[in-house]
Amino acid sequence: xxxxxxxxxxxxxxxxxxxxxxxxxxxxxxxxxxxxxxxxxxxxxxxxxxxxxxxxxxxxxxxxxxxxxxxxxxxxxxxxxxxxxxxxxxxxxxxxxxxxxxxxxxxxxxxxxxxxxxxxxxxxxxxxxxxxxxxxxxxxxxxxxxxxxxxxxxxxxxxxxxxxxxxxxxxxxxxxxxxxxxxxxxxxxxxxxxxxxxxxxxxxxxxxxxxxxxxxxxxxxxxxxxxxxxxxxxxxxxxxxxxxxxxxxxxxxxxxxxxxxxxxxxxxxxxx
Length: 272
Known about the structure:
The protein is of the alpha/beta class. The protein has two domains: about 5-40 and about 105-230, P-loop containing nucleotide triphosphate hydrolases (Rossmann fold, 3-Layer(aba) Sandwich), CATH 3.40.50; about 40-105 and about 240-270, no CATH class. Helices cover about 45% and strands about 15% of the residues. The chain contains eleven helices and eight strands. It has an eight-stranded mixed β-sheet with strand order 3-2-1-8-7-4-6-5, sandwiched between helices. A hairpin with a 5-residue loop joins strand 1 and strand 2. Helix 2 packs antiparallel against helix 3 (about 75-90). It is globular and about 60 Å long.
């Protein structure tokens, strides 16, 4: 069985509204699946309301900045606004607002917990990738809540080889939480049969390189790759625009030198 036969790419769009979830299989709309989720309607609406308020403020801030200094010199304002929107999609606590207790819960985090409970309960071994360090901490808290053992590899990790050896044993922890930048390459993790991108990196080469940690020599199991994307948000819009204009996705993910490639039409589409 070759690598292509073993690689099932299942992208699931988790939603911040009441509509069903679109499930994309092998880059095509082959199936429609519903994700009911464990988040109640009030929490969903509260998170969506927070997203819409930040989106409205971002539009006003960016418009004012662009009118003042032009699009090219508004790079940092645009990137900061996009980061805030992405943080709301992941978990509102990432915003670092003063009264964190008043923030709504995260629909995506609830979906992640359901996915982890099901995967680990089925005997799977899972790699979880995230870009935001604070989100990695929250994911660790969620795994602890579920009483699921895990390893965490981040930029400050000194014992990478020891962690890899632990995960690679049959009796090792079933989940390996990995910073995308710190562990997206250079690791062989063939015990994994499931890969989860919590906050997707829309440069396909980077995402694929991370998923390939499970596709090394010695892999003898099918590997399922899940990408968690909040529908009807900036996450889905960047995902859709990626194929049409790769530079847009790169700019939105923090590459300031590419932000100048954003046109007014791109901006309007992204912040619609």
